[in-house]
Design a protein that fits this description.
12% strand, single chain, 49% helix, eight-stranded parallel barrel
């Protein structure tokens, strides 16, 4: 079964720049989008957790997504995140995505409720039925509490709209399972420190928050592995990126690190929305040092071609 949408390359889940009062800084958002398009990423995602969706209501999430769609002007595909606690909210987000002309939706397990695989599948299929758009599933048991397991996958895969799955479990056995038993569902890397393994097992896309501020380096890994099939080069690039993966996860401050990375890149992303707080001075310094070494090392690897 040929999927109705092919996911190829680097998909960036956008940060949401904020003013000091917590309102959205759309001027900075425009800069983020234009910078990523200029850098050559392959698609953008609005309304993911990297964009602080958990601190926004449905209307604000749709407002941000509409702005993003208008700013893109058809130059890149837009995926809209629909993750929410309640199915009606997810359907509202998906319906808004369809109205604005989004290319696909990202559908996650509802957090906190811990649904059974059947319940989780029925949630996805209800969203699918409401909008009839290409779907990238999002398996992130660390945040959602449950896996999108085999029973779930068998149920939802009956819909041809289920095109891909962003796999963020961290369990390498899931990569093997998806590649071998569900080849009709495109596997997208959602676990940054396993990107090399995902590409080795046939993944053609990578949803990576770090590409908000290191687009060139993330594209370089995709290019080496998925396009050139040069895994020797890929291993060297990945090795250079591993310290970043560790720092991004420092104390669970992933989004804070990504937003600070974008600010270092020249676009002020502002504060976090409560309950989260920004990085302290030591954390900023550690991130800055890692970024500097990473950029220098990967630039040398690319220059050897």
């Amino acid at each position: 079964m040929t999927p109705i949408m092919q996911f190829e390359g680097i998909y960036t889940p956008l940060v949401t720049p904020l003013y000091s009062d917590g309102s959205v800084n759309y001027d900075a958002m425009s800069e983020v989008i234009e910078n990523l398009i200029a850098k050559g990423v392959h698609g953008l995602i609005s309304g993911g957790s990297t964009g602080e969706n958990y601190a926004q209501d449905v209307n604000e999430r749709l407002e941000i997504a509409r702005f993003t769609k208008q700013q893109i002007k058809g130059r890149l595909p837009l995926i809209v995140g629909t993750g929410a606690m309640m199915t009606p909210d997810s359907i509202a987000l998906a319906s808004g995505a369809k109205e604005m002309g989004a290319d696909a939706i990202l559908v996650a397990t509802p957090p906190y409720s811990v649904p059974t695989e059947r319940e989780n599948a029925l949630n996805v299929l209800a969203i699918d039925k409401a909008v009839n758009l290409p779907i990238m599933l999002y398996n992130y048991p660390g945040r959602m509490g449950v896996h999108m397991g085999e029973d779930f996958l068998d149920r939802v895969a009956r819909s041809r709209n289920i095109c891909a799955i962003k796999e963020s479990s961290g369990d390498i056995n899931r990569v093997h399972l998806l590649a071998r038993d569900y080849p009709h569902i495109q596997m997208s890397c959602g676990m940054d420190d396993q990107a090399l393994e995902f590409f080795a097992w046939g993944a053609r896309s990578w949803v990576c928050a770090g590409s908000n501020f290191l687009a060139d380096e993330h594209i370089a890994l995709y290019q080496a592995c998925a396009v050139e099939g040069n895994f020797d080069k890929g291993r060297r690039i990945m090795s250079a990126m591993m310290p970043l993966m560790r720092v991004l996860e420092q104390g669970g401050k992933f989004i804070q690190c990504v937003k600070h990375g974008v600010t270092l890149d020249g676009i002020d992303t502002g504060p976090m929305r409560p309950p989260l707080k920004g990085l302290n001075k030591d954390e900023k310094r550690a991130l800055e040092q890692v970024i500097q070494v990473l950029k220098t090392t990967i630039a040398k690897i690319r220059a050897e071609d």
